[in-house]
Amino acid sequence: MAFTLALPLLLHAIPAQADALATLKSSLSGTTTLQGRFTQTVVQQNGKPQQSAGDFAIQRPGKFRWSYSAPYEQLIVGDGAEVWLYDPDLRQATVKSMGNALESSPAALLAGDNALEKNYQLKPLASRNGIDWFDARPRQEDAGFSSIRLGLKNGQIVEMELIDRFEQLTRIRFDNVKRNTRLDPTLFRFTPPKDVDVVRE
């Protein structure tokens, strides 16, 4: 009897989940550029939350700029072929090939191509505070994160929650976001300043 009563609810939930996933895919596939501000909070186990903030720019596929301005300056630039990490205080720049690393990282969801289900297992979650949430679990076992949660409001990504292999939680909130506007190509280029040590990985 209980199964009979639950069956209509189950049949209703299946298309609802499909509609939710379609909304997520449509939002990402319909995005060519994103630009705005971000606030990032890292919640460590038994530790004080660490907060940072800055600007970001994304041009799909494969190009992004993540610029921290507080509490310390740091710059991450992906030009489609390589990823640069520049630390002005250390006078050091690290560069590595983008390769397949992008496909198993959070950047793949925002800056990668549209092959979401190839790289992630997607599942809609319960809405919170007017935000529709989705869980994306990397299919690659060596991915840096065990779970990535995306929060959408009115079809626009407004938050991300990242859980790494050590159960450390990183929350990212996006503000003043501009979607599908023309971006300056120089945002996605990086040339190390003189007297900076360059480390290739």
From TrEMBL:
Question: Cellular location of this protein?
Answer: Periplasm
Where does the secretion signal sit in this chain? 1-18
What's the subunit arrangement here?
A: Monomer.
Q: From what organism does this protein derive?
A: Chitiniphilus eburneus
Spell out the GO cellular component terms annotated for this protein, sorted alphabetically and separated by semicolons.
periplasmic space
GO BP: any one term: lipoprotein localization to outer membrane
**Keyword terms, alphabetized:** Chaperone, Lipoprotein, Periplasm, Protein transport, Signal, Transport
This protein's source sits in the domain of life called Bacteria
- Name of the molecule in the record: Outer-membrane lipoprotein carrier protein
Would you identify the family this protein belongs to, as annotated? Belongs to the LolA family.
> What is this protein for, i.e. what is its function?
Participates in the translocation of lipoproteins from the inner membrane to the outer membrane. Only forms a complex with a lipoprotein if the residue after the N-terminal Cys is not an aspartate (The Asp acts as a targeting signal to indicate that the lipoprotein should stay in the inner membrane).
Record bears the keyword Transport: yes
